[in-house]
Amino acid sequence: MVLFVDTVAVVGAGTMGARIAELFALNGKKVVLKEIEQVPLDKGMAIIKQDLDGLVAFHEKKGDVKIRDIESNGISLTDEQKEAIRKRNRPTYTRDRADKVLAKIHPTTDYDDVSGADLVIEAVVERMDIKKAVFSDISKVVDSRTVFASNTSSLPITEMAKATDRPNRFLGMHFFNPPTTLPLVEIIPAETTEEETVMDIMNVVSELRNHRYPMMPVRVKETPGFLVNRILGAMMNEVFLCYEEKIAAPRDIDIAMKAGAGFPMGPLELADMIGLDVAAHVQETLTPFFLEREKKTATVVSELVDEGRLGKKVGRGFFEYE
């Protein structure tokens, strides 16, 4: 049975939950944003409104910004040319459109309002006991066909799935902060997840677009840290050690990784943006895994070299090149 998602419930109105709700509302879905208390719910709605206000302001100024860019190169434009540029760069996000997006979101502290959801995405604090309790409460009010998903960045998906009444319709949907501008979503099936559910959610995400890009779902095997945090976690541990050992000043660490490794944002700046409490939790969760991994060295590069696959210079490496 193909999953048609008309209504999405997001449980947790923090920085991630609010913006996940915003993302689905941007794409015309009805959204229920659930919190346990009114104050964090109001804060979540304020985040969404601030985002939409910024989006409208950006689009309103696109034409004038383009004109300034052209004239900064010493080119003089006529009034007619300026007007033509403004028309070509007219806003696609208007105040009316932003208001309609906001109207799609129903903020609530009542689980009964979640009852009509086709998809429920949990985005609460990274504690297994709390997440299990949330899914237990939701199970009492939603249809048996509703798909459950967790936005956890590191907790075991299968353990959560087995604690619900629908382990076959449960998976991880790990969005990245902020999902309104970053397009990646890791889709992590539990051991119990039906293939049809995985494909349904992959298709749902593929049809979404955030402020800048089409969303990009990537299927990932359940493993500590999933994919991005598993790779990023190992790197970030080295970054933190370089900081502790005073290998370079904090600003210079970030400058080096941006200027030398092509990072769009320095790793310490990234840690600040994610939240150091979140970074500490991920590090704590992954440390036992990384300690075990230190005993293992990947052999795939040597094997590819032995096969003559030296990379782009010979047209073959991990990928094929023309």
Can you describe this structure?
The protein is 49% helix and 12% strand. The protein has 322 residues and is an alpha/beta fold. It has 2 domains: 7-219, NAD(P)-binding Rossmann-like Domain (Rossmann fold); 228-295, Orthogonal Bundle (N-(1-d-carboxylethyl)-l-norvaline Dehydrogenase, domain 2). It has an 8-stranded mixed beta sheet with strand order 3-2-1-4-5-6-7-8, sandwiched between helices. Helix 1 (15-26) packs across helix 2 (38-71). The two termini are 41 Å apart.
Give structural attributes.
322 residues, alpha/beta, Rossmann fold, N-(1-d-carboxylethyl)-l-norvaline Dehydrogenase, domain 2, 2 domains, eight-stranded mixed beta sheet
Q: Which percent range fits the helix content?
A: 40-55%
Query: H/E order of the elements?
Result: EHEHHHEEHEHEEHEHHHHH
Total strands: the figure is: 8
Tally the helices.
12
Give the overall silhouette. globular
CATH topology assignment of the largest domain: Rossmann fold
Distance between the termini: 41 Å
**Average residue-wise pLDDT:** 93
Please state the CA-atom Rg, rounded to the nearest Å: 23 Å
- The tally of domains stands at 2
What proportion of the residues form beta strands (DSSP E)? 5-15%
Structural class assignment: alpha/beta
Which runs of at least 5 residues are low in confidence (pLDDT < 50)? none
**CATH H-tier superfamily of the largest domain:** NAD(P)-binding Rossmann-like Domain
Main beta sheet, described? 8 strands, mixed
CATH class of the largest domain: Alpha Beta
Q: What is the level-2 CATH architecture name of the largest domain?
A: 3-Layer(aba) Sandwich
